[in-house]
Amino acid sequence: MSRFFAPLKEGLWGNNVVFSQMLALCPVMAVTTSGSNGLGMGLATTAVLIASNMLVAAIRNLVSPQVRIPIFVVLIASLVTLVDLLLNAWLHELYKVLGLFIALIVVNCAILGRAEAFASKNTVAAAAIDGVAMGLGFTFALTLIGLIRELLGSGTLFAQASLLLGPSFRFLETTVVPNYGGFLLMILPPGGFLVLGLLLAGKRAWELRRQARSVAAGPTGTSPGASPAPTAA
Amino acid sequence: MTAYLLLLLSTALVNNVVLVKFLGLCPFMGVAKSMDSALGMGLATTFVITLACAATWMLEHWLLLPFDLAYLRILSFILVIAATVQFVEMVVKKSAPTLYQALGIYLPLITTNCAVLGVALLTAQESMGFAQTLVYGFGSALGFTLVMLMFAGLRERLALARVPAAFAGAPVSFILASLLALAFMGFAGLNF
């Protein structure tokens, strides 16, 4: 089981595409004006990432190193074209909102990065697990930023989820603050930078605090979640 | 003539690629750390975006539309852009070795700059004419270079400032970008 959970933890937190590696910033900023948009974009990217990871791993022994980058790019571009057409056909509202950024999944550094760094050196199964983990981490980041911006900007959570993601997502729609006046700045571009900057600072502060605590607890207190003082004393 | 001048202004300032449309954020955050590298990256990107816009316009209007192949747009555009970047790299290496030394590592990175593909796809979607496409591409690239330079200059000052430990490095850069974006929102008030 740890074969599955260790990469998942890495993808969601330790090696998160957005919060740790700071890749793929364009979609992170551009589509996270609401939780539903973030979730939709995250899932679309995850689908491309899993498929591209598996395909790259499957052909890793056939491709010579000199031409691998163009081949990976063509593979990813074909998959993105498929996702683009599928979303246009079945989730047209979401397609209209995300617009250009669906096509721009091609140049998402995270996808080519995973193909190059992981999938081209591992088996199909391992690459698929890596794709799921990294994709979920990306989706988590997008949804979180989207929810914070939406909550502060218009006082709702997952508004229009049933319209954008399909009727079965209606249960997600909540209005947290009724008759909220709105805080437009959060929805506008500056809000995206601001929220991500504050989130990164929050993560850093939390890590610094944990580090300080484990130093205070002495050399034995390195395991995560260990209670601070008693062992060293 | 005025129409093109206004288009240039509106793409460079009002609809800035980086701060309003959120394209090309990776080099914005990654490369814009010193004025020199920001200028190099900006100029190389300007060249590539303008060339790529011209090339993709021809591809779109002479090949994809006549043969009803619009669904191959993403795939063919990224290939054209990769080839353009490779071409620019070869030309610069041959004709201006000193510039190549300076730009060296940034050139291949331009392929994955979403501003290039983004601007090319936008001009194709809005089916602009050839001259309009060129001006749109050049204006967007100018806006990119301008913002890269401003951000790099601000960050050079920021490197000397005392920042709380939790904000040092990336977080404070994002807050800075947020303030810069706020300033650029002011251009939205301009009426053309």
Describe it for me?
The complex is a heterodimer of chains A (233) and B (192). Helix content of chain A is 66%, strand content 2%. Chain A is mostly helical and 233 residues long. Chain A has one domain (2-184). In chain A, strands 1-2 form a two-stranded antiparallel sheet. In chain A, helix 3 (35-58) packs across helix 4 and helix 4 (68-90) packs across helix 5. Chain A is globular. Chain A starts with a helix and ends in a 17-residue tail after the last helix. Chain B is mainly alpha-helical and 192 residues long. Chain B has helices spanning 2-14, 25-30, 35-64, 73-95, 97-103, 106-109, 114-125, 130-158, 170-185. Chain B starts with a helix and ends in a 7-residue tail after the last helix. Chain B has one domain. Chain B has nine helices and no strands. The radius of gyration of chain B is 18 Å and the shape is globular. Chain A binds chain B through residues 22-26, 29-30, 70, 73-74, 77-78, 80-81, 84-85, 100, 103-104, 106-109, 112, 185, 188-194, 196-198, 200-202, 204-205, 208, and chain B through 19-26, 29, 71-75, 78-79, 82, 111-114, 116-118, 121-122, 125, 165-168, 170-175, 177-179, 181-182, 185.
Structural category of chain A is mainly alpha
Total of DSSP H or I helical runs spanning 4+ residues of chain A: 11
Total E-strand runs of chain B? 0
Mean pLDDT of chain B: 88
- What is the terminal separation of chain B in angstroms? 14 Å
Q: N- to C-terminal separation of chain A? A: 35 Å
Give the overall shape of chain B: globular
Largest interface: A-B, 41 and 43 residues
Based on CA atoms alone, the radius of gyration of chain B comes out at 18 Å
Question: How many domain regions of chain B?
Answer: 1
Tally of helical segments of chain B:
9
Quaternary: heterodimer
Structural class of chain B: mainly alpha
Widest sheet: strand ordering of chain A: 1-2
Q: Based on CA inertia axes, which overall geometry of chain A fits?
A: globular
User: Percent of residues of chain B in helical segments?
Assistant: over 70%
Radius of gyration of chain A over all CA atoms, rounded: 20 Å
Biggest beta sheet attributes of chain B: none
Regions with little confidence, pLDDT below 50 for 5+ residues of chain B: none
Give the DSSP E fraction of chain A (strand runs of 2 or more residues).
Answer: under 5%
Number of domains of chain A: 1
